[in-house]
Design brief:
The chain is α+β, with helices and mostly antiparallel strands. It has a single domain, classed as Glutaredoxin. It has 10 helices and 4 strands. The protein has a 4-stranded mixed β-sheet, sandwiched between helices. The longest helix is centred in the first third of the chain and has 18 residues. The two termini are 17 Å apart. 36% of the residues are buried. Pfam families: DSBA. One of its GO terms (cellular component) is peroxisome. GO terms for molecular function: glutathione peroxidase activity; glutathione transferase activity.
Length: 207
């Protein structure tokens, strides 16, 4: 981070609707608040397995609440999330390992595409109710087909696998799910978990 600016890391997985909410708000504030935002693509299933966490919908009452909560937050933050009870089965039936490796590989080669690409995956999964298809998402944000093929080839490389694994392990050090937002302030990491703690984050870094 630049002198006097707070490094804020966002650990996220595109399967998580709350990650999308946190992502959009942090993207809006990254040029207003005195912070350097760093995207940390991570693998949610790995985090949950390592910490003994369970998806919210595994508890029926929590699932009911999540349906209302995500709709309310989407409306409040003006993020076009659609969510229905059917999405819980869709989430459980979707493995994002390949997707998060793809985003990681893009970050290693074309980092300027990470923000629009991540948004495109969320839009496809949570607005258009479609599967996570890397080639279509990449085309939509302007990655050339040659570059897309190169990045897809990288997703099975040890470098990309290790980078995603390292990011996931770092997320596990701090928290138990995503979005995990870590502000590095006065030499120490401070965790703000979830998309509903962003006012606290702003206050904490002096905004």
């Amino acid at each position: 981070a630049e002198m006097g600016r707070t490094l804020v890391e966002l650990f996220y997985d595109v399967i998580s609707p709350y990650s999308w909410l946190g992502f959009e708000v942090l993207c809006r504030y990254q040029h207003i608040w005195n912070m350097d935002l760093r995207f940390r693509p991570s693998y949610l299933a790995g985090i949950m397995q390592a910490t003994g966490n369970k998806p919210p919908a595994m508890l029926p009452k929590r699932g009911e609440y999540m349906l209302r909560d995500v709709k309310r937050m989407g409306k409040y933050y003006q993020v076009p999330i659609k969510i229905s009870p059917d999405d819980f089965a869709r989430i459980i039936g979707t493995n994002t390992l390949g997707t998060m490796r793809f985003i990681t590989a893009v970050q290693m080669t074309q980092p300027e595409y990470v923000e629009p690409l991540s948004r495109e995956f969320w839009t496809r999964f949570w607005s258009q109710v479609s599967i996570l298809q890397s080639q279509l998402a990449a085309k939509q944000v302007g990655l050339s087909s040659d570059l897309t093929q190169k990045v897809l080839g990288m997703t099975s490389s040890p470098e990309v696998k290790n980078r995603l694994k390292e990011s996931t392990e770092e997320a596990i050090k701090y928290a138990f799910g995503v979005p995990s937002i870590v502000a590095h302030y006065e030499g120490k990491p401070h965790l703000f978990f979830g998309s509903d703690r962003l006012e606290l984050l702003g206050n904490f870094i002096g905004e």
